[in-house]
Amino acid sequence: MNKAQLYNRIFVQLEDLLKKSPAPVASMATVSAVLFHKLKHYSWCGFYYLNSGDLIVGPYQGPVACQMLARHKGVCWAAIDTRKSQLVPDVEQFAGHIACDSRTKSEVVVPLRNAYGEVVAVFDVDSHVLNSFDADDVQGIEKIMQLLEPFEI
User: Is the entire prediction scored with pTM above 0.90?
Assistant: First the structure.
């Protein structure tokens, strides 16, 4: 099974699981757990959400995360500021990268929007391997994040 097929399979699984809970935090925890355990190239995955202008960690899987990310720095803030997914093959080449885990080599971040189309959170995925992510990851994660939109926490 290739990556695109795997993401589609996970999408169907999550679509069913998320119908069972209207609670945003439970949905975030479920998405993080399923993706982390099904996709072996993930070393960390989880949510960061905006709270009074600060980007705060939400449910995640993997090593301990940065609790709050410096404003307008790093890949997560780039996704918020540009309102676009960020695919980073080598985090060392990304100006302002925030290293919550020094082993992280590549990253992908997908924004989540509220009912007004405003970016209010991101889903962040790290890997300990360079060039671990590609367009299939971005498209697969974007499709899965649509299950959570409009996003409210």
Answer: yes
Own/partner contacts of 22-29, CB < 8 Å, gap of 24 or more, are 24/148, 24/151, 24/152, 24/153, 25/58, 25/59, 25/153, 27/147, 27/148, 28/58, 28/59, 28/148, 28/153, 29/59
What is the rounded average pLDDT for all residues in the chain?
Answer: 93
Compute the distance between CA of residue 59 and CA of residue 46 in angstroms, rounded to an integer: 6
CA atoms within a 13 Å half-sphere pointing along the CA-CB vector of 6? 15
User: What's domain 3-148's architecture?
Assistant: 2-Layer Sandwich (3.30)
H helical segments located in the chain: 3-18, 24-38, 74-82, 135-145
